[in-house]
Amino acid sequence: MDKGWKAWSVVVASVLIQTFAFAPTEFIFGVFVQEYLSMFPTASPSSIALIGTIGSSTTFLVGFFSGAFSDRWGYRVTSATGSLIMTAALCLASFSTKLWHLYLSQGILFGIGASLVYFPAIGAPTHWFEKKRGLAMGIAASGSGLGGFFLAPLTQFLIDRFEVRWTLRALGVYSLVICGGASLLLFERDNSDGEQRWNEEKQYRKKTRKRFILPEYTKGLPFAILVIFQFMLSMSYLTPIYFMELYSTHIGISKQMGAVINGWFNGASFVARIVSGLLADLVAPDVLLLVCSWSCTLAILVLWTFSKSFPTYLIFAIVYGITFSGITTVTPVIVANQYGPRQVSGVLGIVYGFSCLALVAGSFISGHILELSKPYIDYLPVIMYSGSMFAVSALFATTWVILLRRQMRQMQTISSDNKAYLE
């Protein structure tokens, strides 16, 4: 545990996969928004945003199954299959002539592939690390920020140079080479160290291969609160990301500088994921979750509201990247600590699967609110909507942490009583 070239190869593979899994539907999708509005001049911003929303929600919806598949059938096969599907999806998207073509290709098909690569990527490192689990998860999760940091300006450059269709094909090649190659490094631990827990893992796989069962952990109140927390978070977190480029133009920032802001957002996300993962090993990860949740809420309600120039909007993008990434990094760490590393992909697959409707609804509501302000575009109602949803999610995060701590105290009390009885 916590050492060996295979262990760190798995982390590197997870980083590489996560540079791209959500990039075309979330972290660099803002770069595509203006291009698609030009391609389809009669389309509304909300209908364009629906492409990315469909992709992200499909990723989470398929998580109901891909998380279980990766836990039961192996990470490499699942992830390699997903990378091929993502490549095919982007190549098909490059030939789109109607908006619904993009819904099917860059939306649904890419989302299926992304789900098959993402859940193995977040589940595999937990099998190899215990003491340094937070750091390993943080480094792995930093891939999405790293990908957005260099892919956002790179994608804008490719679009300016070669147009959007060839850019989509180039991203398809990236998926095939980088994600496909990284999938081969998602090693699973063998029995050479003789650890009992891994023998139990193998028995678990043999037992559950033949049938899918509803795990016991889904029946508790803490799990239900976790689902609601993630659901409310999904109602809001895409809004600042999807409208980043459009809002930049709205306040007088050029398209190129808007891509720079997007890049800095992802760069901050990259650093924050590593740092928050390291902190999760040093301090209580549930406390870190609450700090990030409430800080993210304040960032939207205060910093975004008063972002009227390049410097102020850049500050908001960086702070949002830091705080939001902290949430997404420490949540899997808490899940691994609470339910065990064996269950991470399955738990998060179910939790994110319930969130798919929230992703669609949240982006649709944000776009509709913005359209209601025409002909004088006003982003303040959109900001208030996103901030209020974040506040609700922070409340449920707080409730979840309280329940987990209470449950832990009860288990410690029972353990102490049993020990005293045996003595």
Task: Please give a handful of descriptors for the protein shown.
423 residues, mainly alpha, 17 helices
Description:
The protein has 423 residues and is mainly α. It has a single domain (9-187, 215-415), classed as Growth Hormone, Chain: A (Up-down Bundle). Helices cover 82% and strands 0% of the residues. It is built from 17 helices and no strands. Helix 1 runs antiparallel to helix 6 (99-128) and helix 16 packs antiparallel against helix 17 (380-422). The longest helix has 51 residues, at 133-183. The protein is globular and about 65 Å long. The protein starts with a helix and ends with a helix. The model is unreliable at 191-195 (pLDDT under 50). It is a multi-pass membrane protein. GO terms for molecular function: transmembrane transporter activity.
Distance between the ends: 33 Å
What amount of the residues lies in strands? under 5%
**Assigned CATH class:** Mainly Alpha
Class inferred from helices and paired strands = mainly alpha
Parts with pLDDT < 50 across at least 5 consecutive residues: 191-195
Mean pLDDT: 83
- Give the helix proportion (percent range): over 70%
List the helices and strands and how they pair.
Elements: H1 5-18, H2 23-27, H3 29-39, H4 45-73, H5 75-93, H6 99-128, H7 133-183, H8 196-208, H9 221-234, H10 238-242, H11 244-250, H12 255-282, H13 285-304, H14 310-339, H15 344-354, H16 356-372, H17 380-422
Helix pairs in contact: 1-6, 1-7, 3-4, 3-7, 4-5, 4-6, 4-15, 4-16, 5-6, 5-7, 6-7, 6-15, 7-12, 7-14, 9-15, 9-16, 9-17, 11-12, 12-14, 13-14, 13-17, 16-17
